[in-house]
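Dear colleague,

Following up on yesterday's call, I've attached the two folding results inline so they're easy to grep. Please treat them as preliminary; we haven't cross-checked anything against experimental data yet. The first protein's sequence and structure tokens come first.
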Amino acid sequence: MKVLSLNAHSWCESDQIAKIRDTARLIVDEGVDVVAVQEANQLQGGIPWRSERYGGPSALPVGADNYVQVLAEMCAHLGAEYRCYWAEAHQGFGKYDEGVGLLARADSVTETHPLVLADYPYTDVRRRVALAARIRGWGWVISGHFSWWEVEGQRLFEGEWGAIERFVREHPGERVCVAGDLNNPATVVGEGYSLIRERGWWDTRDLARRAEGHDTIAGKISGWEKARGGARIDYVLINQRVWVSEHRVVFTGEESPVVSDHYGVLAHVGEAEGE
């Protein structure tokens, strides 16, 4: 199974439609099976429209400009059929319904669950959600956008990750892949990345027979205004050790165009170690 994770920074990018086209082209050309999207936005109060490719489970009316819908339609234009799923998290940038989304090959998803990671008023950026989809023949893939380790003395990330682990306990023995923006650099010891590794999660970059690229942001971006350089904050993680043939950072401007203020992460994972 090929999994792509991308914080799309959607509708905050210049030349957004061209960047959606470039994103769809990589998805189709690489034969990606599941796409986990963060900052999948739609304009609040925009034109409602529900594509036949949209599978829910948002409580809000889905808009014609909903990023995952537009991306699924672009993939269809390029000849590949994907179903799209979206869950709203909070008001973003003062005017968007910001959420997380998934694209998956048609008929591969058997059920979806939105997960509230941190419950705050909708206008509070601390309200965080994830979206889980059961992929036929593999297990669960979760798209998640998490908070920083600590904000104003409050450890936000630890509680949010606890919600992921509750989901895993509710599905004993099943494979669970978390793909997304964790907002916790891999190089910082004693914070979010250390926590997930201590709790037994596997990083597909470490498992991969071939790993290309490291940083997933180049420097200062929204939310990381004090960054002094690049950082690795986007991941594909799995609760069980599996065979990973490849882990690659994409949309860097080298092999594939830049489409966001984040790079993407593409991982090719098997069903079990050695497969």
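Below is the second protein, in the same order (sequence, then structure):
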Amino acid sequence: MHDTPVKQDYRSLRRQTGLNQQQFWSRVFVTQSGGSRYENERSVPAPVAELVRLHHQLGIDTSKITPANAELLRSLLSGDIDSAMLEATAQRCRLVMAALGNGASELLTLSGHITRVLGTHTEARP
């Protein structure tokens, strides 16, 4: 990424999001007054333009990128991890978790029945 200023209609983009200047620009670490200048044809530095693109055009909340998940993100972006395969695996995991959740609930119910049956039988014994 270069520091070459980027031309774009930021006012139009902001209005499409339904945000006021303070809301829109603060999400990319720019003051309201700085954002106002950018909306009035002042050059936007490339790093700021990239943050706007990531956050407002692609819906990526850059504040959630941490050292813990950065390696995974780099692997996805480089193609080392197949995103379609990762999504399919995540879906399978959700299905397994749902099945386990249902199974755990059924086991708890069965456990209650067994406890009642055993309790009845032990009470009947002398």
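For the second protein, one point worth flagging: The chain has a mean pLDDT of 86.

Best wishes,
A.L.
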